[in-house]
Write a structure and sequence with these properties.
By secondary structure, the chain is of the alpha/beta class. Helix content is about 40%, strand content about 25%.
């Protein structure tokens, strides 16, 4: 039997995991000393409440899972001799997958019959979401582990993600951007534009003055790089920015047609701890990242 695992940092929710019959691995975050596991410690992510907390000054932190965490998740399926595929967010952004490798090595020695593979989307949050969902659709259609991975490998460099954040202090606190970029993000009205590159790493690729200009830049990236966008999952992600989401969706439909199907995705709280509130992203099938 094939068992699929996905993680919450790909913006897959508990309800979606249940719909597809896959196991959701929760990536934790801390608010003060309290460790919180999405969809374990709560059923649904109340994104407005969470991002309002960040607006009021709270800056959550994140931490990697331990080998023991992974062993607890995987061992029941190793013991049954299942085939397993873990589709996850970019290994270049975390050391959590070093812990996973340690756990899996030990489990493979203990249960040599089981097969375990993992697939690195080389992306994160709403950037990973469309590829993960397309791979889950293949699973739902009865495709094999090898067929699902083959599709993912063919397509993963063809899902581009561009976004802007409202305030880089969240990234600055986590060490995910340079000090210069953090300084630029502190200039009133300047919105840094960030992408996830071919190596699966986030980087600043420019800036825009004002949210309107930032949204226009996102649309221009879709215009310049978009490839067969209507036949693939198209995502507008956000960190509690419904009015901006409506603006960008209206502009995208005006540009590419009313038949463009757009999924609006709230960025999960663990990834949102780094980006902060009032940000918007586009994620789409592209010629390249």
């Amino acid at each position: 039997m094939l068992r699929i695992f996905v993680d919450s940092d790909c913006d897959i929710t508990k309800a979606m995991a249940e719909e597809y019959g896959v196991t959701l691995i929760s990536m934790p975050y801390f608010v003060g000393e309290k460790e919180i596991y999405p969809y374990v410690d709560f059923e649904e992510f109340e994104s407005h409440e969470y991002y309002n907390m960040l607006r009021k000054g709270t800056i959550p932190t994140t931490a990697a899972l331990s080998p023991a965490n992974y062993k607890t998740i995987f061992e029941p399926y190793f013991e049954k001799g299942d085939e397993m595929l873990y589709i996850h967010f970019s290994a270049a952004m975390t050391n959590t997958f070093e812990a996973m490798e340690l756990a899996v090595k030990e489990l493979k020695e203990k249960y040599p019959v089981a097969r375990f593979e993992h697939f690195d989307t080389m992306s994160m949050t709403c950037g990973a979401y469309p590829l993960v969902k397309e791979m889950l659709n293949l699973y739902k259609d009865g495709k094999s582990l090898d067929e699902i991975v083959e599709y993912g490998e063919k397509e993963k460099q063809h899902f581009a993600c561009f976004f802007f954040v409202d305030d880089l202090k969240f990234f600055a606190r986590s060490g995910r951007v340079s000090g210069f970029a953090s300084f630029m993000g502190g200039i009133i009205g300047v919105k840094p534009i960030i992408s996830i590159n071919e190596q699966g790493i986030m980087g600043s690729i420019g800036s825009a003055v004002g949210r309107g200009n930032a949204l226009n830049k996102l649309i221009k990236y879709v215009e310049d790089l978009g490839d067969d966008i209507k036949n693939h999952i198209f995502v507008v992600g956000h960190t509690d920015a419904p009015l901006l989401v409506k603006k960008v969706c209206d502009a995208l439909k005006a540009k590419f047609g009313e038949d463009l199907v757009i999924e609006k995705v709230a960025v999960n709280p663990t990834a949102g701890a780094h980006s902060g509130p009032d940000g918007v992203a586009v994620s789409f099938h592209a010629k390249h990242r």
